Amino acid sequence: MTTLVVAEQQNGTLNPTTWETVALAKGIGHPVTVVVLGADIETVADELVKANVDEVLVVEDSALEFYTADGFSMALEQVIRAEDPTLVLLSHTYQARDFAPALGARLGRTLLTDCTKVEVRDGVLIFTRPMFQGKMMADVRLTGPNPHLVTFQIGAAKVDNIDLGVSSAVRRSLGVTLATDQIRQRPELPFRETKQAVDLSQAERIVAVGRGIKSEEHLDLIRKFAVAMDAELAASRPICDAGWLPMDRQVGSSGQTVAPTLYFALGISGAIQHVVGMKGARTIVAINKDPDAPVFEIADYGIVGDLFEVVPAMIKALGE
Predict the structure, then answer these.
(1) SS3 144
(2) What's the confidence (pLDDT) of residue 162?
(3) I need a surface site. Which of 14, 169, 220, 289 has the fewest CB within 10 A?
(4) Whole-angstrom Cα distance, residue 1 to residue 86?
(5) In whole angstroms, what is the distance from residue 18 CA to residue 22 CA?
């Protein structure tokens, strides 16, 4: 029984969520193989070899230099059929959401998405995923023939147990046959609805604002704070629904899932629809004038106070 992790890289740089998926795979207890696709990916392969996994498969082809759903799903189908793993794990990124359904259809296998946890109960793997916009969590047992394909939310695992100093993995190249005339897409900057769209899942620091901002004109204050923190600006759904910030800035069950090192929740009550999108943050700081706001239940640090008094004071302190 083996677990195959699909690494994600772009321009020779690994997506940090790959390490989270590796950590989850190692926790299952099966031998772990990591596969990386692309062209000129020697540096990425060298990095993966140090992750203390059992094997690293390197799939290089000029047709995979730039990501396309057709190219990646065709290549991975060949890899999976050749290696015959028990599980195939991916991070629930924009890229995986794009090609994983097609991959599952090609293989005729189950695809379970957006999981937050996996554990072994009485010898059976149980996966946990949100339902009904995070209002409920479902425990899922996969049935049917292997392999099963599973994607995990960003922030589903901590990567503290990944020892990047150990070079024990076997490295192996694997060839694939790709018919370029069957790759229908033309590569361009991936997964951005507009030129201004942002991938919050890659942000180290995020400043998010909710209903407590009261009006659009007060966003200038939050922008100044985000600049002072060198952070990305985000929001809960009501702010984006009102058009005060674009939808690509929304965090939550109907927006982006993030796991930054530092997350500021300003004037955000902590509704479950928002929490499911940011609970993977390493450190959460909440500012809200309501001492009973649910956000304080998940916050590492909380300030009960008026954000229009607290935030200017923080900006001043940062400037000093």
Answers:
(1) coil
(2) 65
(3) 220
(4) 6
(5) 6
Secondary structure element (H or E) that encloses residue 308, with its range: helix 307-319
Which residue's entry shows tokens 């954000």? 307
User: Token pair for residue 222?
Assistant: 């939050």
Q: Indicate the helix (H) or strand (E) that contains 32.
A: strand 32-38
Choosing from 147, 182, 217, the residue where a domain stops is: 182
Nearest-angstrom CA–CA distance, 155 and 244: 27
What the block records as the tokens of 69 is 């759903």
Write down the residue that tokens 């390197």 correspond to. Answer: 58
Q: Same structural domain for residues 216 and 128?
A: no
Q: Which residues, in sequence order, are bridge partners of residue 283?
A: 262
Tens digits of per-residue pLDDT, 102-152? 999 999 999 999 999 999 999 899 999 988 877 788 999 999 999 999 999
Per the structure, the complete domain to which residue 164 belongs is given by 3-182
Q: Which residue has the tokens 């995070």?
A: 134
Q: What is the pTM of this model?
A: 0.77
